[in-house]
Each structure stands twice: as C-alpha cells, then as structure tokens.
Write a structure and sequence with these properties.
It is a single chain. With about 475 residues, the protein is α/β, with parallel strands linked by helices. About 55% of the residues lie in helices and about 10% in strands.
Length: about 475
C-alpha cells in the first residue's frame, strides 16, 4: 500500500503543540523534527538522536497521539525515526518565521498589524518578549495569565503579582507584558524598579513636587513595578503606592508587580496593601524541571547557531537546577570557551570546563545557627523553641523543616544535626527528615516554603 499523506495533520498538530507549550519549549523539542511518511495507522517523523527521541516519547507521546487522533478523526499513532541533525534545516514550521529565523511563540497579538510599529520603550529591554520567554510547567500558569492580560489590560488578572527566587524570569515576564501592550496599542506604559519609585518619591518630597510624582504614576494605563520587597519598612512610600494602586485599579488600569517571595511573607508591609493584592492573581515561578532545562539549553544553543552533543545537554540539565539564569550563563560560558579555543565541545570538555559550576557549594558560609535563626523567625518562633523540648504542632513542624533544610544545604551528618537541635539523637533527625519528605509528596505548597526559607538563609548569611 502506498504511503498516505498526513503531513497536513502533522502541521496542525505542531500548531496546537506550540500553542500549548509556548515558543521556547516547543522549539527545544520539536523544531528539529521532519515529517517523513505515514502508513494506514501511523505518522512517522524524523528526529535527530536517541536522546531526543526518548525525551519526547516519555514526556509528549500521549499528548501527541491524542492531538493527531482528534485532528484526523482516526486511530493514528505517532512514531519517530532517528535521522540525525539534518532534520533541523527542513523541519516544518507551523507558524511564520521572523526575519532572523527564530521560531515564533504564542503571543498576545495574533492578528496582522495594520499600523506602524511604535518605537521601543525606553525603560524596558526589547529582548524581554514572549517570543524569548521560556515556558514550561514551572511557569505556565504565570505565562498564560500574562498573555491574557495583554489581550484585555485592566479587565482580568488585575492586579497581577509574579513572585519567585532569583533568575527565574520574573522581570522578563513582567516586561514582556509591557512590551506587548506598548507595541500593540497607544497605552501609556510605565515600568520602574521599586527602588526608582522610592527615589522619585523622596525627590518629590524634597523638591516640593509631589503633584508631579503623583500625576506621573496615576495617569498610567499600565504600571509595572519590579521588586516591591524593596519597599518593606518604608511606610511613607507604601502609603503613596496604596493610593496610586487604588486610583489605577478603580480606573481599570493594569497593575503588574514582581516580588522575591509571597506578598504575605513581606515583613513591615501594610496590611491594606497586602489585601489589595488579594483582589487579583498571584503566580509563583518555580525552578524548571529537568526536561524543561534541556529544552532551554537546546533552544538557546540554536539561537546562537550552535549545537552540542546530547550527552552535554544531559550533563548540564542534570547538574544545574538552580534557575534559568545560571543555566544560560553556563551555556554561554561553554560557547565562549569553544569559540576562543576553537574546539568542538565534547562530554569530557564540558565536564572539565564546568566542574567549578557543578561542584560549587550549594550555599556558601552557612551555619546551623543561621538556619535555625531564619527558620524560627519565618514561623514567628525563637531559636530556643526549635532547640528545646516543646512539642506543639507548629514548633515540631518548623523544627523538622529546619532539620530537612540543614541536611539539604550543609554537609552536617545526622549526628551533628541532632547536636545542633538541642542534643537530639540521630534517629530523631532521620525521622524528622522523612516526615518532611512524605509531606512534600502530598502538599504542593511545601516546596515553595522550603525555597523561600533557603533564599532567606542565603540572604542572612550574606549579611552576617
């Protein structure tokens, strides 16, 4: 029987996958594929390597099969054949390519533009766009909310708070919203770090120009403020922010903020401001998972016009799990090394050149005293509570969590941890750590709490 032509079905499948996954994740795993042929019940696609095949199969196979069957109305399955790197140049693209051949992602603006493009915004990076934002399970909710905002600024997801640790893309996503709205409308977009907002407030008071300050921010159509944790313990500027917040929200203007932690965890931050954030959407950015890290590496390498062996991608994906910024920094480091030394990157080269990154201490200069102090403060307790004999539920939980984190980020043995927590037996420490591991399987919010504590511990250690 001659091969059937299901290439149109495959192209529509790619379009739907890109809509679901976002540009960067899609590009990392699917842009190297090439439609080969189809049988009565199969679509066969070429793929560059066994590594690529195995990752697509484990993560996307069932989704792809479902989409193909939904589109075709037939019981067709998806199969892959390894054909090498040549697939990259001939892979079908489901959407129009940009001038520099970078794959386009799903953005807030899908219709052709009929008016002249506005010049870039002076206070936002023009590369902080949705096309360049890497979307995965760790940030999909935040990215979808951001895209919805661009379609209807001020109408939904307002206010919008993006929070998470360093290097996870908070500023990028916030500015992608601003750039999209600025480019596709006549809206007045104001983007500022919280530190600049504070400095302008101080200047307004000192120079008797508070009306200028207020008019600037309260006449915005879209207000983006980065790192609002900088405004903690500053009641005067918080008061101004509260009134600006109210004026813009009542006028149905869009408000977007970033923060390094959940708004409820900010100390000395006005309750009435915290309650205002409860009116909108709060999105927590988490570190990317292994599959997403590999997709990021593949996509960024492609943007640089280079490719690395699969084992190098696997090595970096497994060993750099902190955040996107560290991942891309390590990749850039490797690319520059290859250019300077004029060498092909092999697994051995990558292991040797990145060993300092892989072997770096997870958090430097830590002591259990600091960990106990930060954990106690986080839960409104004292260090003596965690070290002592009290068995109330909140104290036991905080104590177990501090033991778990101590084991994670220090080289302390179970016996040493027991001594730090009031001379407890090592079996008690093991039991406490196992309890937290069990709770991590059932409580989706616990991982975020642990990351917030680790960040607080790192910040405390840097200051003391």
């Amino acid at each position: 029987m001659a091969d059937l032509d299901y290439e149109g079905v495959w192209k529509e499948t790619l379009i739907q996958l890109q809509n679901d996954l976002g540009g960067e994740e899609f590009s990392g795993w699917f842009s190297d594929m090439k439609y080969l042929h189809a049988g009565e019940n199969t679509i066969v696609v070429g793929i560059p390597s066994a590594f690529h095949r195995d990752k697509v199969k484990s993560r996307y196979q069932s989704t792809i099969n479902s989409k193909i069957q939904e589109i075709s109305g037939a019981e067709i399955t998806f199969e892959m054949e390894i054909i090498g790197k040549s697939a990259k140049k001939t892979a079908p693209s489901p959407q129009t390519q940009s001038k520099n051949d970078e794959p386009t992602a799903v953005t807030a603006e899908k219709t052709p533009k009929t008016k002249e493009k506005r010049s870039k915004h002076p206070n936002m990076r023009d590369d902080y766009t949705f096309e360049r934002y890497i979307i995965g399970e760790n940030n999909k909710y935040a990215a979808n909310a951001a895209l919805a905002i661009c379609k209807n600024p001020g109408k939904i997801c307002n206010p919008f708070l993006i929070y998470g640790g360093v290097g996870l893309g908070k500023t990028h996503l916030m500015q992608a919203i601003g750039n999209s709205i600025h480019e596709n409308s006549d809206s007045r977009v104001i983007c500022t770090p919280a530190e600049s907002f504070l400095n302008e407030y101080i200047e307004g008071i000192g120079q008797g120009k508070m009306n200028v300050f207020r008019n600037k921010y309260r006449q915005a159509d879209v207000l983006l403020i980065d790192d609002i944790q900088f405004l903690t313990d500053k009641p005067g500027v918080q008061d101004e922010l509260f009134h600006t917040f109210n004026d813009l929200l009542n006028a149905k203007k869009q408000l977007v903020f970033t923060c390094d932690r959940p708004i409820e965890d900010l100390k000395k931050f006005e309750e009435r401001l915290i309650s205002r954030f409860g009116l909108g959407i709060k999105a927590d950015l988490q570190p990317p998972r292994y599959e997403e890290r590999c997709a990021i590496l593949i996509s960024v390498a492609q943007a640089h016009g280079v490719s690395f062996p699969d084992e190098v991608i696997d090595l970096m994906g497994k060993n750099i799990a902190s955040n996107v910024r560290d991942l891309i920094s390590a990749l850039d480091n490797l690319i520059k090394y290859a250019e300077i030394m004029r060498e092909e990157i092999t697994l051995e080269t990558a292991q040797k050149h990145l060993k300092n990154i892989f072997n770096a201490p997870r958090l430097a200069n830590l002591s259990m005293d600091n960990i106990i102090r930060v954990a106690a403060e986080y839960f409104g307790l004292t260090p003596n509570d965690l070290k002592g004999k009290k068995r109330s539920q909140n104290i036991v939980f905080a104590r177990q969590l501090a033991m778990y984190i101590g084991r994670e980020i220090t080289d302390s043995s179970y016996t040493e941890l027991g001594q730090d927590f009031g001379g407890r037996d090592h079996t008690t420490v093991i039991h406490s750590i196992d309890k937290i591991k069990g709770k991590l399987l059932t409580d989706p919010t616990l991982e975020s709490t642990i990351e917030n504590l680790k960040r607080g511990i790192k910040e405390y250690g840097a200051k003391h």
